């Protein structure tokens, strides 16, 4: 693979100014909900990616689909970029205003519109966060399983095709979005999908929008699948003598078909960071965090099988999180891993990898990566949705030391090259954004990326929808 | 809904002749694999839909991706339509040469290319049929669950986003295709997806191609998810005093979250036809055919729950298909329902409905439909993947009596109108084809269909890929 380092790929910034007429129209319609204050713009001009890019020119806080459509119509008229903003938790630079324009803040569109518990579906506005959603539907006995590390917005999770710790059993946003309402590049409002569980009615616009990173439209409403809260839930941690042993156990668990709900790897560095951040006392070695969902008898069967596999791979005794509170504490700690990691090296930023490979290739992919990371001199930690073949190496870099960033990007390139050689992908769940545009071409091939670009140009001829993401501008 | 009857919607036939130069080029490359014999063309010019349309001008039997690419390049050069042909089992007119052109017969591309049992994936050529696939991988302990009624080809199943009896547990082609090789409208070969279980790498071209009915490209290779053959399998039939009772039981089974593998409704007419065709002696009333997959203990739990629900709804005692042979006999009979039904009225053809609604709306949708069908005077039967909210009314019509077709189409329109009003879809698994183009507009809305057309025009500017399907030409 001859892909250049990701740092070389940042598009040159060619701002497309918001004309005075458009700014006046926005102010006239939105009043104080339209802000050009620097602090507000800066807050909307960065995310958790390692980039610093000028902020958007304007931020508008939307409260309705009509608000979004009105902004996009103006943007279309004036050929000005728009960037949807949810919770600001992207890791790949999705939110950065590389060509200026308007940040469409959707965080106030945070209503659960309709819970149809008798169909196991819910319709929400895009600014609803995953924890808010589960809090608001808990009474129904249902839950929504997809849980990226951050408390992301549902709209953002659609846009990046997010997943998280439960995907090994419940799938990703790809499998769990039934339909969308979308404002297209012309400002028109369309609906994709219905509440039917399956359909063969024309092109799958829902799946096209899921993972399109704001480049094809702004998602203004989402209908999701829900699941009955399992009758029985058990969670455990199990330490292993090495990462290799933990990975081998994982591979066997998946290959034998255990319907495990969560199967997460933490390396010793991650456990250490999480212990410190969340005041836990987990054994500081390679570890699997697991959860089992089902009937009491079904959970018991799963655990027996997994304990046997863990034993065969040198795993220590399971430590159980017995109560709901203990489980919440454990998984909250897991979800804090990113912020816990940041505290290891004050002032650092992270370069986070996201490869995903077929399960039988996981050991090949992960163990060589650990050796490279160890040899790099950079502090790092690893967390992984290993049941899916997906893991993250987070390199902690000093943003003021270019060499550290270069080292991290080189290691990422080596890892991506390895993963693609193992029939895998450069990104399991974070998306392409600014960071992986070259990797996308290597992974999908020039012809497939050309097909994607053709779709982009056809649906967004003025290139106003989050331009410069997925493809260079 | 003011959609016209489907019969009014058949596009006028405007054949686009295959120029002599192209025909010569095809003959030079393909020799005897290029046929213009009327019998061969007629065989490729119809399917199981109720339409008669002139056949393609030429049929080419492909043996490789390069064969397909060569044909499409010629077709691009000469602006001639191409229509992929797999097993010929479409129900919606997908294969009909409404604008003439070349039928690309893929049935000889029927190799299982690679079984990666350690990853639960398999890569196949598009002409492999579903039963062939399961026969060839049986030794691995894995299986592929998607099973439309016909022994369809995997390529065709991708093209129509097919499902079948196992979808209630295992999903449809939407969820079970990992990646594709596709020949685009310019004759270029692209790959979509990898063997990674999940990915956020750019637009989901895999899901865009799945369900595109040959209108965006020709699928030449498919990578599928597989599943471990369950440790325990039990199948049973249960008769109910009425369709209403069987449907109520189904709704409760799904809402309570039983991971049932199959949950199929047959009405008394369907049972009668199947009994006669497959020499069975099932009780001739409304019936659920069910199958349970899991560990022995898990299956036992599922059965206890479902038996209780059946009892509560007046179900008779379960009759068990105890042995693998008995199960095969039962499910083969279910898969024969279509052909069994045809024999009820010699010389008939069927108009088959395919609505799918959220599970809580199933009774509303189905019971009013039964009343209408009973009042119509047409013979009919009903089979349904009711666990998914999907069912088929097959109206048996005399193709020489226009009034029968009109009646059937009117009933279909009424059913679709009802299903859309219940947040459902006009087609759960058969596709749009020629038959449901007006329904698609009503269901998705003009704006969403315009977005689909925009994609079609961008990716196939000469409109050579199965033109006149999904959208009127």
Produce the secondary structure layout.
Two copies of one chain form a homodimer.
Chain A: H1 20-30, E1 34-35, H2 38-43, E2 58-61, H3 65-78, E3 82-85, E4 102-105, E5 112-116, E6 121-124, H4 130-137, E7 142-143, H5 154-160, H6 167-170, H7 173-176, E8 177-183, E9 189-192, H8 205-209, E10 218-225, E11 227-228, E12 232-239, H9 243-255, E13 262-266, H10 268-278, E14 287-294, H11 296-312, E15 319-321, H12 324-335, H13 337-342, E16 349-352, H14 362-376, E17 380-385, E18 390-397, H15 402-421, H16 437-444, H17 446-459
Parallel strand pairs in A: 2-4, 3-4
Antiparallel strand pairs in A: 1-2, 5-6, 6-10, 7-11, 8-9, 8-10, 12-14, 12-15, 13-14, 13-17, 16-18, 17-18
What kind of oligomer do you see? Answer: homodimer
CATH topology (fold) name of the domain at 231-433 in chain A = Vanillyl-alcohol Oxidase, Chain A, domain 3
Residue share in β-strands of chain A: 15-25%
Largest interface by Cβ-Cβ < 8 Å: A-B, 88 and 88 residues
What is the topology, as strand order, of the major beta sheet of chain A? 15-12-14-13-17-18-16
Unreliable residue runs of chain A: 1-9
Distance between the termini of chain A: 23 Å
Tell me the radius of gyration of chain A: 22 Å
Give the number of DSSP strands of chain A.
18
Shape designation of chain A: globular
Report the sheet with the most strands of chain A, covering strand number, pairing sense and barrel closure.
Answer: 7 strands, antiparallel
What would CATH call the architecture of the domain at 231-433 in chain A? 3-Layer(aba) Sandwich
CATH superfamily of the domain at 231-433 in chain A: FAD-linked oxidases, C-terminal domain
Helix content of chain A: 25-40%
Structural class determined from secondary elements of chain A: alpha+beta
Number of helices of chain A: 17
């Amino acid at each position: 693979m001859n892909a250049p380092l990701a740092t070389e790929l940042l598009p040159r910034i060619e701002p497309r100014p918001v004309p005075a007429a458009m700014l006046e129209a926005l102010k006239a319609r939105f009043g104080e909900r339209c802000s050009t204050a620097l602090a507000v713009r800066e807050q909307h001009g960065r995310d958790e990616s390692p980039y610093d890019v000028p902020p958007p020119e304007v931020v508008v806080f939307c409260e309705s689909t009509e608000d979004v459509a009105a902004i996009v119509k103006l943007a279309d008229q004036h050929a000005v970029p728009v960037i949807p903003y949810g919770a600001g938790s992207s890791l790949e630079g999705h939110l950065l205003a590389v060509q200026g324009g308007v940040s469409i803040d959707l965080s106030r569109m945070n209503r659960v519109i309709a819970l149809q518990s008798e169909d196991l579906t819910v319709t929400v506005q895009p600014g609803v966060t995953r924890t808010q959603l589960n809090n608001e539907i808990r009474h129904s006995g249902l839950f929504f399983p997809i849980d990226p590390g951050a408390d992301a917005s549902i709209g953002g999770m659609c846009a990046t095709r997010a997943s998280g710790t439960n995907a090994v059993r419940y799938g990703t946003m790809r499998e769990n979005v039934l339909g969308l309402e979308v404002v297209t590049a012309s400002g028109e409002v369309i609906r994709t999908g219905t509440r039917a569980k399956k359909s063969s009615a024309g092109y799958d616009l829902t799946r096209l929008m899921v993972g399109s990173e704001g480049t094809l439209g702004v998602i203004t409403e989402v209908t999701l699948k829900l699941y009955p809260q399992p009758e029985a839930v058990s969670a455990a941690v199990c330490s292993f003598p090495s990462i290799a042993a933990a990975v081998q156990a994982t591979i066997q668990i998946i290959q034998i078909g255990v319907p495990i709900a969560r199967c997460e790897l933490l390396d010793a560095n991650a456990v250490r960071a999480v212990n410190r951040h969340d005041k836990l006392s987990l054994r500081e070695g390679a570890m699997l965090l697991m959860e089992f969902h089902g009937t009491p008898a079904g959970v018991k069967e799963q655990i027996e099988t997994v304990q046997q596999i863990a034993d065969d791979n040198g795993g220590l005794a399971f430590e159980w999180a017995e109560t709901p509170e203990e489980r919440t504490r454990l998984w909250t700690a897991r979800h804090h891993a990113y912020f816990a990691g940041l505290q290891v090296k004050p002032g650092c930023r992270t370069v986070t990898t996201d490869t995903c490979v077929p399960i039988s290739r996981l050991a090949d992919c992960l163990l060589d990566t650990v050796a490279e990371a160890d040899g790099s001199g950079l502090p790092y930690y690893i967390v992984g949705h290993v049941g899916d073949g997906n893991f993250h190496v987070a390199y902690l870099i000093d943003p003021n030391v270019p060499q550290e960033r270069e080292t991290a990007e080189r290691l990422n390139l080596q890892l991506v090259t390895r993963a693609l050689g193992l029939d895998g992908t450069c990104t399991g769940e974070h998306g392409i954004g600014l960071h992986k545009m070259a990797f996308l071409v290597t992974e999908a091939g020039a012809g497939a990326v050309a097909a994607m670009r053709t779709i982009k140009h056809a649906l967004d001829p003025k290139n106003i929808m989050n331009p410069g993401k997925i493809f260079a501008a």
